[in-house]
Design a protein that fits this description.
The protein has a single domain, classed as 3-Layer(aba) Sandwich (Rossmann fold), CATH 3.40.50.300. The chain is globular, with a radius of gyration of 17 Å. By secondary structure, it is an alpha/beta fold. The chain has ten helices and ten strands. Helix 3 runs parallel beside helix 6. The longest helix is centred in the C-terminal third of the chain and has 16 residues. The chain has a six-stranded mixed beta sheet, sandwiched between helices. A hairpin with a 2-residue loop joins strand 4 and strand 5.
Length: about 240
């Protein structure tokens, strides 16, 4: 299994307030990796660093064999990093179809021969979006907006999909649909980083986990290891 992303000893700050203290993790081709922790522990900050939205002050991030430390955000995205942001952030005054095509990008030739994501493929993956293709983003339910946010990210044909709080605020049945969709993406070989509070849903789905506490990785391991270590969940993840 080849390495796709390597985050090595990164530090980052908001002004004078340091937020990350030597965070390291990696993602291999086809893997699903999670960043776990309570709110404010550095998970979303790490995502901002991945996309060049917050500069790192130490360490390095290597994606697809290239250091992204000095690259602007649009260049990092072009390498094949796709984001499903917290809060979905769909364009409310664009239709579903316009949201999907606004950021569409052809697959890179280095994308391991994976099938390219097109409008019709997204509609096949999320039939509800096809039904609502003419509706504005503001007219969708929360679950439909989340499907749209995932579909929009897929239309960039990412090598690595990053999902920040993918099921937050959704009803249980809709959450189950989203987990099923992400599981299907994994079966298709798409690498993913998932940030979510639902450890129970993540355990059967993800390969490896990194637990953050106050800007540091305090535990890492596989799903079977995390399942056996209830003290880690109790200490770092329970509210």
């Amino acid at each position: 299994m080849s390495e796709l992303l390597n985050v090595s000893d990164i530090h980052a700050s908001y002004g004078q307030a340091q937020a990350l203290f030597g965070v390291s993790f990696e993602v291999n081709e086809g893997e699903v990796v999670t960043l776990l922790g309570r709110n404010g522990m550095g998970r979303s900050t790490a995502v901002k660093c991945l996309f060049g939205l917050l500069p790192i002050t130490h360490g390095d991030i290597v994606f697809c064999g290239q250091s992204t430390r000095s690259l602007p955000s649009f260049s990092i995205a072009r390498l094949g990093l796709g984001l499903v942001p917290e809060g979905r952030q769909v364009f409310p005054n664009l239709t579903v179809e316009e949201n999907l095509t606004a950021t569409a990008r052809a697959a890179r030739s280095s994308a391991k021969g994976a099938s390219e994501w097109s409008l019709e493929r997204v509609y096949t993956f999320f039939p509800r979006l096809k039904e609502r293709r003419g509706n504005f983003g503001s007219q969708l339910s929360g679950g439909e907006q989340q499907m749209l946010a995932i579909g929009r990210a897929l239309m960039t044909n990412p090598r690595l999909l990053v999902l920040d709080e993918a099921t937050e605020g959704l009803a249980p049945l809709i959450r189950a649909e989203i987990w099923q969709a992400l599981t299907e993406l994994k079966s298709q070989g798409l690498s993913q980083i998932v940030i979510d509070k639902n450890v129970g849903a993540l355990l059967p789905f993800a390969d490896r986990h990194y637990v953050l506490e106050k800007g540091r990785v305090v535990w890492s391991g596989s799903s079977p290891e995390l399942r056996e270590q209830s003290d880690v969940v109790q200490q770092y993840l329970r509210v």
